[in-house]
Amino acid sequence: MARQGLFKLLLLILACWAVRNDAVPKCDKVPEGTTAPKSRADSRFTLEILGKPQTYSPGEMYTVSLKGGPRGSTIMARFIGFILTVETAGRTGAAPGTLYLFGDSLTKFSDDCPNTITHASPVLKTEVQALWTAPPQGTGCVVFSATVIERKDLWYQGDKPLSITLCEDLQQSSDEQPEVNQQCCACDEAKYEVTFEGLWS
Fold it and tell me: Which tens digits make up the pLDDT trace of 39-80?
């Protein structure tokens, strides 16, 4: 009898563990449906932040774009899909800021990965954009990385043109003046001599 109770308890624990694991999304940045290994990225596809800042200011909003470069004199490189992710460097567990959709029908939030935007359809595109609000002060560096799917069996991921590391602007934080909160107190005595003069007509 005790053995049956122990067996049922073990089955219950295994069932709960399986349900919990299914509930945790698996973040796989390999394009769905492809069996080909990734190719080395070249300069035809680039990840950029508008204005090309060297650092970020906490709480500020930035425009992030993934674009295809020229393939000839007039033709721009196009892609059918993408995955854009932002993470904190060193995986500290701090939130890396917030990504927002730019308002077009080409993008959507990923169902599998946090802080990730992906393509909504496989139509050919030359550029996609997203908005990003920088994290609060003290977060440290963040890393943007993109996966570009040129076609089903040709994709690129994480090489230098598709990766940006952006760190907090520590100079701006140190330049902020602390709030002056001195108590005004007149504690000493003073003597004044006042003379009033008037002109009477």
Answer: 888 888 999 999 999 999 999 999 999 999 877 667 888 999
Give the pTM. Answer: 0.69
What phi and psi values does residue 8 have, to the nearest 5 degrees?
-65, -40
50-79 burial, b if ≥16 CB within 10 A, otherwise e?
A: eeeeeebebeeebebebbbeeeeeeeebbb
- List the chain domain ranges: 36-168
Residue 185 burial (CB count, 10 A):
6
Cα–Cα–Cα angle for 113, 50, 80, rounded to 5 degrees: 50
Q: What is the length of the chain? A: 201
CATH topology of domain 36-168: Immunoglobulin-like (2.60.40)
